[in-house]
Structures are given as structure tokens and as C-alpha cells.
């Protein structure tokens, strides 16, 4: 698919956090930026006149906009940093130097130190982060040291040197900030248990530490040590408020290609994330048109080979959401949990956003393709034998059994066809009986269509659960249409779809277009029915007061209400006042009617 016009690209951007990239007509990267809301931020470049000549020149050169969707604004900031350093775009002036974000290092030592750093040294040490603020790092380290005292010295605490008595405890030990491993006052095993707990904290797993904190707080409170208890409580509050580290970057994930796929009836969308030293350095989504009914596995295998060749990727390991067969030369991993799993989920999210943008762009530039794809999708999702080009939805409206009415709305090719909407007064049912009312209106609707030789819908939707669905099926059966038209019921609470003869409902993906069309149908039927019901109630209220008077018609009632504004004022008016509005003859009838009533 060719690159759409900028206007269309802007219209279809997601309102999510992420990083955007601007390209010129030659495909050269001009600028990388981050955004809390991609749509608002990117649109702002094109919605105003820029005083800055550099920005004005940038906007003139932009031909294509790409983006990567992430979880949070923090992730966007980190990813922006990585991409600017990797690609050095011409119009980015910030972040091109070697300054990097801080990490927390757990040093590869017998008694590991834990400290902040901006440099990653490959000596087997563990690095957690990166963090967007050094303040966050110090807060977290203060928290850790308050719970788990650690050494701060840089001595070589080998077993031999400790046993020979080479070191003596320092002031930190006497202040309670260190447990004295230099004099063997804590075993390596116990120290490493503390390090394991620290790993959990920096990974965002605070459960065990919070439990220990709360126990210590209770001990202080029981001992009437309220200041110490408050100090622990403050740390608990900080710990609970602290957000887990970024999933965008993890130094343990190095030199890896990540692939995922989403698909529909006609196309597959393969997303590719390239990671180097734990940082995303490239994102690309490939659209593959299905020739036959290829499976997601087949499409993903084709997409992986094509993308790796296109970008000349030499990464030895590939992450995918499910098993694929690429031969023995590649190591394929299907992550089950942790950062590796989250990076695959991030790839899947980007594939889904790309697919949604393609839908929106297609809807604008090629509406027929959009409708064809939507109809094919609905046919598959709803297990229909034909595409639901013509859908009708029924809804009953009554309040406390008064003025029962029903509405039928019609959608053709996924859009409302308002000229075909119909409303029904319930004729054969007394009182609030939704089931009987549904049977009546479905019967009347399709008896008329049959009598007038009008086209029947491919799908009928009734607003309600099994009871309303059974009533609709009964009406179709009596007309000989059972099995000729598909009919389903939608229950409001969990958006369950019920089918005739099946006690187990169907649940669609909450974000699926099929469910959105059904919800739109149901909501439109409800709106149309409620409006008709309100109008009928208002009309009936007038009838009981004025139109029931013999000799007084609708036109007279309208004139009176236009002048007096309410029925009570008409009732209180003098005969002379009434005569000035509707003439003496009708004024006398109304005046005498109310005099007799009183």
C-alpha cells in the first residue's frame, strides 16, 4: 500500500503514548519525538504557523509519519533517547551526546554493592532501569538501604582475606548502615537473601518487602516507638507509590529481533522490533495480502524472512508469540513471562495499532474495500453463512408498563439506513411483557416485508437475552422464516451474544469491530425507541386533558398550549380569555367542561 497523504496519516494516529518519527520524500529520518498523546502532539506541528525557521523547514519536508506505541510517557521518553542516539536525526539537537539515563547496578561480587550508575560495564553485574530521574533512583536506594543494610566500601571481601582479619568494621557498621561482612558478622548466604529481596523491589515486586515493612511498623507501634513507626510508614507509602521499571529497555535482552502478527480475513500485519543492548532501535510493520486462507503461522514465517532480508538483520535470536518453523539456523524463543513476554506484547500492540490505522485510512480512500473487509469479518466472527449486508435490530420501550412501543433500526453495509427505520405501537399485548411484545413486532415486521415482496435482512438482532431471542425465533417460525434469516440476542450486562438452541453465549473481543457495529445497532435502536416512547407519552398526556373534550381537535389544543403554555393555565383561564385565542364557540365548550368537572 502506498504512503497515504499526510492529512490521512494525521487523522488515523492513535491517542496513545509513544514515539513518532518524521521522514522526507527519500525515506530519510528527519526527527524523532515523544508524546503523551501521539495524535495531539503530531497534529500540533501542522495546525499552526511556526516562528522558528528550523521547525518551519522541518514541517515542509515531512512526507511520512511513523510511530511506536508504548505503555507510558516514561517509556516514550526512554525510547526517544535510544532512537536519537542510534540514528542521530538531523533536526534533533538534544540527547545526541553520550549522556545516558541512570541505572541501578547490583555488582557482581561476593558481597554485592548496590549503587547508581550511568555506565554499563559487562562484568556480569546486573543493571536495572533505566530511570528518567536520579531522584527516583536515590529514593529507591534509600528505601532499599533502610530495609536491607548493605556495604558501601569497595574492598575485595574474598573468604581468604576476611578469615585472615585484613579488614575492620567502619563507622557505617556502628551507625547500623552496614552488617559488617568485612569481619564475617553476616554470612554470604544471608547477605544474598537480602540481595534477592532487593532484586524483587527493583523489578517492581514489593509484596514480600511490604509485608516485612508492615511487620516492622507494627513492632515499633506496639513498643510505643511512634516516630520509628511513622518513618517506616513513610517508606511504605513511597514504596507503594513507586512505579515499576520500564519495559522498553532491559540490558539482558541483547541483539534480538521481536516479531508478532495480527490478521483479518484479507490481510496479515507483521510487526518487527529490533533490540540492541536492550534498547529498541527499529520498528516496522509489514502488510501481507492473503492469496489463499493462510494461517497466522504461515504469514509470520513469510514476514520474518522478508523483514530480516529487507533490514539485513543478523540477530541470532528471535522472539515470537507462538512457535514458527524457520529452520535450524535461527534460535526462536516463545517467551512466557517477564520482560521478554512484555516486549512481545508491545510488538503485538504496535501491530494492532497499525491495523487500525490501515482500516481508518482505507475507510477514507477506499470505502468499498473497508465495507467488504468489515462484512467478511462480521460473517466470520458471528458464524454466519452469508455476509450481513442488511441487519435489523429490535428494542422494546416501556416505563412501568405505560405506552409500550418498539423500534426497528436498519443498517446496510455497516451504516445506519434511517429511511428504513420503523416504530411500532404494541397492539396485542397488555401490560409490560417484553417477550410477547418482541414476538408481536418481529412477526408484524416480516409479515409486511413478505407481503410487499421487500428484501429480507441477512441478520436480525434482538436487544435482550434468551427470552427475547426465543420470542423472535417463534415469530420467524410462524412465518416460515426459521433458518432462512440468522437471528441473535445481545444481553446488556456482559455483551453476551445468544444463538437459538445454544445455552452458551458467544463473547466477542471488546475491541472487535463486529462488536462495535452490534453495540451501535443496539444503542441506535434504544435511542430511536425511547424517543418514540417519550413523544407518545407526551401526546397521551395532552389527549387525557384536552383532546378528550368533545368538539375540540388537535389544532385547537396546539393553539391553546402555544398561548397559555400549560394545561393547568388553560383550565384556570376565563371564558373571555379563551375566546380571544380560539373564538367564542370553542371557548364556551372548554370553559363549561371544566366548570362541570369541578
Number of domains: 5
Evaluate the radius of gyration.
35 Å
Q: What name goes with the CATH superfamily of the largest domain?
A: UvrC, RNAse H endonuclease domain
CATH topology of the largest domain, by name, is Nucleotidyltransferase, domain 5
How many DSSP helices?
20
- Mean pLDDT across residues: 80
Q: In CATH's first tier, which class of the largest domain applies?
A: Alpha Beta
What is the CATH architecture descriptor of the largest domain? 2-Layer Sandwich
The number of E-state strands comes to: 19
Low-confidence stretches: 94-98, 243-248
- In angstroms, what separates the terminal alpha carbons? 79 Å
- Overall geometry comes to elongated
Biggest pleated-sheet summary: 8 strands, mixed
User: Level of helix content?
Assistant: 40-55%
Structural class comes to alpha+beta
* Strand proportion: 15-25%
Function: The UvrABC repair system catalyzes the recognition and processing of DNA lesions. UvrC both incises the 5' and 3' sides of the lesion. The N-terminal half is responsible for the 3' incision and the C-terminal half is responsible for the 5' incision.
GO molecular function: DNA binding; excinuclease ABC activity
Pfam families: GIY-YIG, HHH_5, UvrC_RNaseH, UvrC_RNaseH_dom
Subunit structure: Interacts with UvrB in an incision complex.
Amino acid at each position: 500500500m502506498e504512503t497515504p497523504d499526510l492529512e490521512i496519516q494525521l487523522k488515523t494516529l492513535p491517542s496513545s503514548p509513544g514515539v513518532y518519527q518524521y521522514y522526507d520524500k527519500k525515506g530519510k529520518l528527519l526527527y524523532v519525538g515523544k508524546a503523551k498523546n501521539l495524535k495531539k502532539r503530531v497534529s500540533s506541528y501542522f495546525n499552526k504557523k511556526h516562528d522558528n525557521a528550523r521547525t518551519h523547514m522541518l514541517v515542509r519536508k515531512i512526507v511520512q509519519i511513523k510511530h511506536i506505541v508504548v505503555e507510558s510517557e516514561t517509556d516514550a521518553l526512554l525510547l526517544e533517547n535510544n532512537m536519537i542516539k542510534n540514528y542521530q536525526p538531523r533536526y534533533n539537537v538534544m540527547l545526541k551526546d553520550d549522556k545516558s539515563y541512570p541505572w541501578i547496578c547490583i555488582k557482581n561480587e561476593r558481597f554485592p554493592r548496590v549503587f547508581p550508575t550511568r555506565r554499563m560495564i559487562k562484568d556480569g553485574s546486573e543493571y536495572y532501569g533505566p530511570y528518567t530521574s536520579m531522584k527516583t533512583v536515590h529514593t529507591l536506594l534509600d528505601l532499599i538501604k533502610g530495609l536491607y543494610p548493605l556495604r558501601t566500601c569497595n574492598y575485595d571481601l574474598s573468604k581468604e582475606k576476611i578469615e585472615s582479619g585484613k579488614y575492620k568494621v567502619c563507622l557505617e557498621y556502628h551507625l547500623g548502615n552496614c552488617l559488617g561482612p568485612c569481619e564475617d558478622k553476616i554470612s554470604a548466604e544471608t547477605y544474598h537473601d537480602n540481595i534477592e529481596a532487593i532484586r524483587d523491589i527493583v523489578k517492581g515486586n514489593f509484596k514480600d518487602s511490604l509485608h516485612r515493612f508492615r511487620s516492622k511498623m507494627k513492632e515499633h507501634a506496639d513498643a510505643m516507638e511512634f516516630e520509628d513507626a511513622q518513618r517506616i510508614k513513610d517508606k511504605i507509602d513511597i514504596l507503594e507509590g513507586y512505579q515499576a521499571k520500564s519495559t522498553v529497555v532491559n540490558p539482558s535482552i541483547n541483539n534480538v529481533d521481536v516479531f508478532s502478527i495480527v490478521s483479518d480475513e484479507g490481510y496479515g500485519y507483521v510487526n518487527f522490533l529490533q533490540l540492541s543492548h536492550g534498547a529498541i532501535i527499529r520498528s516496522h510493520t509489514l502488510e501481507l495480502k492473503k492469496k489463499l486462507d493462510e494461517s497466522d503461522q504461515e504469514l509470520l514465517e513469510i514476514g520474518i524472512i522478508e523483514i530480516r532480508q529487507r533490514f539485513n538483520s543478523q540477530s541470532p535470536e528471535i522472539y515470537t508469540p507462538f512457535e514458527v518453523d524457520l529452520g535450524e539456523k535461527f534460535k526462536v524463543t516463545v517467551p512466557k513471562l517477564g520482560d521478554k513476554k512484555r516486549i512481545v506484547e508491545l510488538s503485538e500492540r504496535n501491530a494492532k495499532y497499525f491495523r487500525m490505522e490501515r482500516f481508518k485510512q482505507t475507510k477514507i480512500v477506499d470505502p468499498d474495500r473497508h465495507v467488504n473487509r468489515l462484512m467478511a469479518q462480521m460473517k466470520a466472527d458471528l458464524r454466519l453463512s452469508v455476509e450481513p449486508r442488511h441487519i435489523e435490530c429490535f428494542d422494546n420501550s416501556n416505563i412501568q408498563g405505560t405506552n409500550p412501543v418498539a423500534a426497528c433500526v436498519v443498517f446496510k453495509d455497516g451504516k445506519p439506513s434511517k429511511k428504513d427505520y420503523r416504530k411500532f405501537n404494541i397492539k396485542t399485548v397488555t401490560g409490560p411483557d417484553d417477550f410477547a411484545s418482541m414476538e408481536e413486532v418481529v412477526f408484524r415486521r416480516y409479515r409486511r416485508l413478505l407481503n410487499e415482496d421487500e428484501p429480507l435482512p441477512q441478520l436480525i438482532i434482538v436487544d435482550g437475552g434468551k427470552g427475547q431471542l426465543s420470542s423472535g425465533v417463534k415469530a420467524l417460525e410462524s412465518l416460515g422464516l426459521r433458518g432462512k434469516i440468522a437471528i441473535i440476542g445481545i444481553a446488556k450486562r456482559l455483551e453476551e451474544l445468544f444463538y437459538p438452541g445454544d445455552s452458551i453465549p458467544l463473547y466477542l473481543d471488546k475491541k472487535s469491530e463486529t462488536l462495535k457495529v452490534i453495540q451501535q445497532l443496539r444503542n441506535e435502536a434504544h435511542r430511536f425507541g425511547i424517543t418514540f416512547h417519550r413523544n407518545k407519552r407526551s401526546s397521551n398526556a395532552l389527549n387525557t386533558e384536552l383532546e378528550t373534550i368533545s368538539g375540540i381537535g388537535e389544532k385547537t389544543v396546539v393553539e391553546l398550549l402555544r398561548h397559555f403554555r400549560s394545561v393547568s393555565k388553560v383550565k384556570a383561564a376565563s371564558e373571555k380569555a379563551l375566546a380571544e385565542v380560539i373564538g367564542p364557540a370553542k371557548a364556551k365548550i372548554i370553559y363549561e367542561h371544566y366548570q362541570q368537572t369541578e
